[in-house]
Design goal:
Length: 411
């Protein structure tokens, strides 16, 4: 289910996009600010929620959670390139207000400070609150971003300040859009980045400045399933990382299972798993049966919202991955790369999948991928050990012979 709400405000192009994912409802906020020349000057899309602890009249503490943002307006949002300041101001619900300031200092811009206000006079959200009135919490954390990069943070960011816990995730923002074009070059937050030490080496050996290899953390492993009536007919457990290459720039996106919905269908000869989230319009895995006795991944269809607001779509129905006998599951713990097209790869981690013949909602015995199979290493190690031993024996023999020969000579 998808709901779009348009909030037209003079000179501002605003869209609030609400996505209903499975049971958990989460709303992505989106702001596309344009300047007087109607060129985009600030672009942002993000998700947030808040948990507020407040004191009640009878000296107990209560918790209010704010995760749906109703009646959103963006009054006061500005991008002022001349004065090096930009601001996103959001008003929602009954008296909530959220403001983030950005400053520019070439060659970077900064996420400066966040302030969040709520009104405890709203006795529906804050029943029995002791103090009535507007409360504002500030959070300042300077994040420095190269001027022409779009900031991305898919991971969950949590800030706790004065009884308010703020959660942000799936964040995309470019506060000083250059020449009206939202950048495709992503600047990842530290949580999205991997701690791989290889990165600087790659940077220095790759001469092209257009390619930015962005090593990332391994994605979290998600559990997905499809039901036919009330019986589970497809099971999949995997960590997914998407790799989209456009204009020589690879965007690597880890799928967060916590905010990813899944659906699908099962038929005797074909089964489908569809994932979707605020980033993924859809990602379909289609399985087929071959020779009446094996299954395999035949097709991948994907449509992904990119950082610059465009949509990347791809389909390939001529794949042959994850091949295993019917009645069993397919497993691959090592990282595996599915090459869907020259521009789209999916890296899988800790994969286990069974698209057919699932009984009692459980995986059947697994056939493991050859990558996991390290039995081939054993003969190599044994062989290497043996040849080492032979060399030692030969050397010992030669030395021994030499010694005895030398012995004879002295005689
Ligand atoms: C806020 O979002 C995070 C991440 O999706 C989730 O773990 C948390 O339960 C949410 N909290 C509320 C109050 O909805
Ligand atoms: C936002 O601006 C619109 C018109 O510009 C106005 O009708 C609305 O009341 C304002 N909302 C807030 C919360 O200030
Ligand atoms: C949102 O606006 C509608 C109509 O303007 C109003 O009925 C509703 O109470 C508002 N919701 C909140 C949470 O303020
Ligand atoms: C944002 O900047 C304005 C002035 O530029 C300042 O008045 C306001 O307090 C700032 N807000 C935050 C949340 O820092
Ligand atoms: C909320 O406040 C209004 C008036 O301020 C009052 O009529 C109403 O009974 C209050 N509701 C609750 C649940 O306290
Ligand atoms: C305190 O007030 C809350 C509602 O405001 C109520 O649910 C709770 O039972 C009260 N506790 C006591 C000890 O009176
Ligand atoms: C923006 O346009 C100016 C002049 O047209 C150019 O010098 C500059 O490189 C452009 N910046 C970006 C980021 O495209
Ligand atoms: C599952 O569905 C079948 C028929 O649709 C029904 O007879 C059965 O009671 C259901 N089982 C459960 C556990 O709901
Ligand atoms: C992403 O794809 C590009 C181009 O195929 C490749 O060079 C790069 O290593 C891939 N990155 C990851 C993390 O898979
Ligand atoms: C997903 O949720 C689990 C537990 O609910 C939590 O441990 C994990 O950090 C979350 N992952 C992300 C990326 O938010
Ligand atoms: C933002 O609005 C401008 C002007 O309407 C439009 O050209 C641009 O494509 C929009 N960008 C996004 C990311 O929605
Ligand atoms: C798998 O299920 C199909 C029908 O759903 C059945 O015909 C077939 O025998 C099953 N195969 C195995 C190996 O369990």
């Amino acid at each position: 289910m998808l709901c779009f709400r348009f909030c037209p405000v003079p000179r501002l192009e605003l869209v609030l996009l609400c996505l209903v994912l499975g049971a958990a409802r989460s709303c992505a906020l989106e702001l596309n600010l344009t300047n007087s020349e109607k060129a985009t000057c600030l672009y942002a899309k993000w998700q947030m929620n808040f948990t507020i602890h407040y004191e009640t009249t009878n000296k107990t503490y209560k918790t209010a959670t704010i995760s749906d943002h109703d009646n959103v307006t963006y009054n006061g949002s500005i991008c002022d390139d001349d004065h090096n300041v930009s601001k996103i101001a959001v008003q929602f619900g009954s008296g909530f207000s959220w403001i983030v300031n950005f400053t520019k200092q070439e060659p970077n811009y900064f996420i400066d400070s966040i302030s969040f206000s709520y009104n405890t006079e709203d006795n529906i959200t804050f029943p029995g609150a002791k103090d009535k009135g507007i409360v504002t919490v500030h959070y300042s954390e300077k994040v420095s971003i190269p001027l022409n990069d779009i900031f991305r943070c898919s991971s969950l960011l949590t800030y706790e300040e004065n009884h308010v816990v703020q959660h942000y995730w799936d964040v995309l923002v470019q506060a000083f859009v250059q020449n009206g074009t939202v950048s495709r070059k992503e600047f990842l937050c530290t949580k999205d980045k991997g701690s791989t030490t290889v990165a600087p080496i790659i940077h220095t050996t790759v001469p092209s400045p257009t390619t930015t290899p962005t090593p990332k953390e391994k994605p979290q492993v998600g559990n997905y399933s499809v039901s036919n009536g009330n019986t589970t007919c497809l099971l999949a457990t995997m960590g997914l990382q998407l790799n989209i290459t456009q204009d020589k720039i690879a965007s690597v996106i880890n799928i967060n299972p916590n905010s990813t919905g899944f659906t699908g269908s099962c038929q005797p000869q074909t089964a489908q798993l569809r994932l979707n989230s605020s980033i993924i319009k859809y990602l379909d895995f289609v399985f087929a049966v071959k020779n009446e006795n094996r299954f395999y991944l035949k097709e991948v269809n994907a449509s992904i919202y990119l950082a610059n607001g465009s949509v990347f779509s791809i389909a390939n129905n001529n794949l042959s991955y994850w091949d295993a006998p019917l009645g069993s599951s397919y497993m691959c713990n090592k990282e595996q790369t599915l090459s869907v097209s020259g521009t789209f790869q999916i890296n899988t981690f800790n994969l286990k999948v069974q698209p057919f013949n699932v009984t009692e909602g459980k995986y059947s015995t697994a056939q493991e991928c050859s990558l996991d199979d390290d039995t081939i290493l054993i003969p190599i190690i044994v062989g290497a050990g043996l040849s080492g031993l032979i060399i030692v024996i030969v050397i010992a023999y030669l030395i021994g012979r030499r010694k005895s020969y030398a012995g004879y000579q002295t005689l």
